[in-house]
Every structure is written in structure tokens, then in C-alpha cells.
Amino acid sequence: MQPRNMPMSGVVDLAAVKAAGEARQKAEETRERNAASGEQGAPAPSSLVIDVDEAGFERDVLERSAEVPVVIDFWAEWCEPCKQLGPILERLAQAYAGRFVLAKVDVDQNQALFQQFGVQGIPAVFAVIAGQALPLFQGAAPEAQIREVLDQLIQAAEERFGIVGAPVDPSAEAEVEQQEPEAPVDPVLAAAEQSLAAGDAEGAAEAYQRALDANPADAEAKLGLARAELIRRVRELDPAAVRKEAADNPGDATAQLRVADLDLSGGHVEDAFGRLVETVRRGAGDDRNAARVRLLELFEVVGPEDPRVVAARSALARVLF
């Protein structure tokens, strides 16, 4: 999937003379306070990639952005493009060694941040410099293209705001990390994850099914199988054609199921659920049952505890009974 670029012209807007001057002054004041208190502006190697939630956003992102550009990765566990992009961003955070910090935001757990930034789909990547936000790009992207965007971001942060981050040695904690005990890994699940990462949805589905055959209560295998099946269904679809077919034929349950898959894979969870609930409500016989089963499968992808799943289960119960 090619990313929908969000032009770096936004950096120029952020760097308007008055805003840039105020941001630079704020950054300098923050550095002076940190120096006076003995705090260091440079991130430690272990904090080059951080998980951020709503409660810690001001501290971990806004305040930190006065010292170093903060790149925000909006992602979700069920989002396959996120799984392609995330490791690239994390690797680059280490490679750039302190010139930016990567903040990862799980949209399922942080809906307020998701809405505040106006995210239309995931993965989505934003940046915050001196407390000011700008969009970078949306969707998975090749590493070379991401490097270009990061280089522009870092250059703009330095030239317009005087924010340069600080170099760190990513290997400084390698020795400690090697000593940390690793949790035992289920070889079947590990093989499934490797297949999924390699784009082999069929192989992943088979491996997850073997794990479920051995242990029907294995929640991780159940989630993995649902993800693999979703990938298999959407990867050959033409989104424009599928959406047109569904719009032209609202009573075609198969067309509605395809659009629901596309919606979910693109991060539009509530749209996917709402479409399927409505298809159940309007359908009969096999069509109705197919929509119900697909909805239950997508519940597995998102997770049973997610509030959107809870709400959709209630809506499904109302149309069924």
C-alpha cells in the first residue's frame, strides 16, 4: 500500500515567523530549566521508542517536543499495514540515535487522541515540534521514503525551532537487554507470526488453526487466525470497485461483507460493524447468517474487550432478538 502523503509544507506553516519565535523561546526555556535541575534533554536508548497514552501525552510528547522532534505512530494490533510500518519506524528511531523520538499510540486504547489528531485511517504518522503538531503521512511506506520525510522533519526542527535532539548510543543498553530473560515462545504461534510477517496469510492461517486444534481456548491463536483470514479476504480486492458494487446493490450481502472487511482493515472499525449489523437486520436466511458470522469474526480481530465490540454486540443482539 502506498502512503497518502501529507505534504511537508505543513512544516512551513508551523514555522511562520511568530509561531517559530515563540516555539524557539519555549524550547530554550525548557532546556534551561532542565540544565538547572540537572536533567538531560537527550533521550536514553531505551526511550527512543515509547508507548504513549492519553494520561501521559502532555509529559511524554508535548513537553518532550521542546527538546527533540517527536514522531507519533498511530497503530492497532489488528492493523496489518501497521505491523509492516511499525518495525521500520522503530528501527529508524534507533538508527537516528536521538534526533527524534518515536511515540506509539494504540488507537484502540486511546480514542481521544485518535480523534484529536483527526486521524482518518491507520497507520498514520504525525510529528510534534515544540508543542505544535503536523501530519507526515498515512499508510505503510518504504524505508527510503520514510527517511526522506524524517530528514525534512529534523532539518525543519533545527532551522526553525532550534531543536536538534541529542545523540545517544543505541548499543549502550545492549548488554543489559541481553541479560533479560525471555518468555517461552510457542513454536507453532511463532511460525504463524513469521508467516504473517512474510505476507503468507495462508501459511499463517494453517499454523494458527493447528494451535487452536491443540488448544481451542488459545486466545492468541484465535486472534491470529482472524487476522490472517481478514488479510486473505482483502488483499486481492479493488477497493473502489467493491465500494461501488456495494453502493449500487445495497441488498447484496456479499458486497456488504467485502466493504466491511475493507473498512476494518483501514481502521474504520465502527463503520465495519455498523454495516454488518445493518446487513443482518435487512437480510434473511443464508445472507443473514453470513453477515452475523462475519461480524463475529471481526470481533475477534479487534478484541472482545474493546468498547466498540461491546457496543456492536448489543446492536447485533437487538436485531437478532
UniProtKB/TrEMBL annotation:
Per its UniProt record, what InterPro entries does this chain match? Answer: Thioredoxin-like_sf (IPR036249), Thioredoxin_CS (IPR017937), Thioredoxin_domain (IPR013766), TPR-like_helical_dom_sf (IPR011990)
A GO BP entry is:
response to stress
Q: Where is the composition biased (Basic and acidic residues)?
A: 22-34
Q: Where is this region: Disordered?
A: 22-45
Q: What Pfam families would the database entry show?
A: Thioredoxin, TPR_20
> Where's the Thioredoxin domain?
38-155
* Domain of life of the source: Bacteria
> Under which name does UniProt file this protein?
Tetratricopeptide repeat protein
